[in-house]
Specification:
The chain contains four helices and nine strands; from the N terminus they run E-E-H-E-H-E-E-H-E-E-H-E-E. The protein has 181 residues and is an alpha+beta fold. The chain has two domains: 2-144, no CATH class; 146-181. The strands form three sheets. Strands 3-5-4-6-7 form a five-stranded antiparallel sheet. Strands 1-2 form a two-stranded antiparallel sheet. A two-stranded antiparallel sheet has the order 8-9. The longest helix is centred in the first third of the chain and has 11 residues, at 40-50. The chain is globular, with a radius of gyration of 17 Å. The model is unreliable at 1-6 (pLDDT under 50).
């Protein structure tokens, strides 16, 4: 856990290491990292440079991470989070859904869905703070929240749904607390 200071308040923020399949990490090692975003102009530039297309009224989904320097990095939605992070640790990871109307960009939806890093719902604090700092309107929290647990019996990564703390592979009871350290 690292100490971050916001308005004189100490906030604890976990650095998440990649916990996904090693073959994905190795395959993604040669991919370029995500694009740093410091505001709406960077999002618009990235959309144009990468040829992203968004139908009128639709949202643009992207893969995102917040790196240990508190930079927001984005990549095409089909990218792996570990590639977006350049293989490094992150403070948060998931998906952002941008609404782009003319030159106005806002974050309409955001999740912590990343089975490569399995970030806790509490990672919202850093995501919200970074989005505030770079001036992008956003929801008050994750609009889709994922709860991740590793099975102590078989080692499988699980997404807990509806409070069902049982491994999808072997049926073992999953711990109530995050356990990817």
């Amino acid at each position: 856990m690292s100490r971050l200071y916001a308005n004189g308040v100490t906030i604890m923020s976990r650095k998440y290491r990649y916990v996904g399949p090693e073959q994905i990490r190795v395959r993604m090692a040669a991919q370029p990292p995500g694009t740093p975003i410091a505001g709406a102009a960077d999002v618009l530039r990235w959309v144009k440079q990468t040829g992203q297309t968004v139908a009128r009224g639709e949202l643009l989904a992207v893969t995102f991470v917040v790196d240990p320097s508190e930079r927001l990095l984005i990549a095409d939605r089909h990218s792996e989070h570990v590639a977006c992070a350049g293989g490094g640790n992150v403070l948060a990871a998931g998906e952002l859904f941008f609404r782009i109307v003319g030159g106005h960009v806002c974050v309409e939806q955001v999740s912590n869905q990343s089975t490569g890093y399995c970030p806790e719902p509490e990672s919202w604090e850093i995501v919200g703070r970074v989005l505030d700092r770079i001036g992008l309107e956003h929801p008050e929290g994750f609009t889709t929240v994922s709860v991740f647990r590793r099975c102590a019996q078989c080692g499988e990564r699980n997404i807990v749904k509806d409070g069902w703390f049982f491994c999808d592979v072997c049926g073992t009871i999953l711990p109530k607390h995050w356990n990817f350290d």
